[in-house]
Amino acid sequence: MFEITENAAEQVRNAAEQGGTEGMALRMAARMKEDGSIDYLMGFDEAKEDDIRHVTNGIEVVMAPQHAALLDDAVMDYAQLDDGELRFIFLNPNDANYQPASSKRSK
């Protein structure tokens, strides 16, 4: 199941408030690139009848069924990168470039 960390959930709530989209679900989509990495798309949207829906850290997430396999077991976080920039990141074992956190630290 796709999960959102509390840090990311806070940023999603802030974005919804600033954009006037409070109460709307966060739509997630993903597509596999030729190299096996995954592109992520997200935005606020109304749920559709055939959507997969669940709530994670207070955020209603919706996705079309065709995106579920790529997003299964993925985690969206909001973190500071090495360059100091804060941004949404995705930890997804379905991505060819995924490395578990423990192996990233050992490098």
Number of domains: 1
Radius of gyration: 14 Å
CATH class membership: Mainly Beta
Class derived from helix and strand content = alpha/beta
Instruction: State the CATH architecture.
Output: Sandwich
* Count of β-strands: 7
Strand order across the largest sheet: 3-2-5-4
User: What string gives the helices and strands in order?
Assistant: EHEEEEHEEH
* Biggest sheet character: 4 strands, mixed
For this structure, the quaternary state is single chain
* Percent in strands: 35-45%
Mean pLDDT: 91
Helix content: 10-25%
Task: Give the helix tally.
Answer: 3
Broad shape: globular
Which blocks of ≥5 consecutive residues have pLDDT under 50? 103-107
N-end to C-end Cα span: 29 Å
**What is the fold-level CATH name, i.e. the topology?**
Hypothetical Protein Aq_1857, Chain: A
User: Could you give me the name of the CATH homologous superfamily?
Assistant: HesB-like domain
Write up what this structure looks like.
This is Iron-sulfur cluster assembly accessory protein. The structure is a single chain. The protein has 107 residues and is of the alpha/beta class. The chain has a single domain, classed as Hypothetical Protein Aq_1857, Chain: A, CATH 2.60.300.12. 24% of the residues lie in helices and 37% in strands. It contains three helices and seven strands, in the order E-H-E-E-E-E-H-E-E-H. The strands form two sheets. It has a four-stranded mixed β-sheet with strand order 3-2-5-4. Strands 1-6-7 form a three-stranded mixed β-sheet. Strand 2 and strand 3 form a beta hairpin.
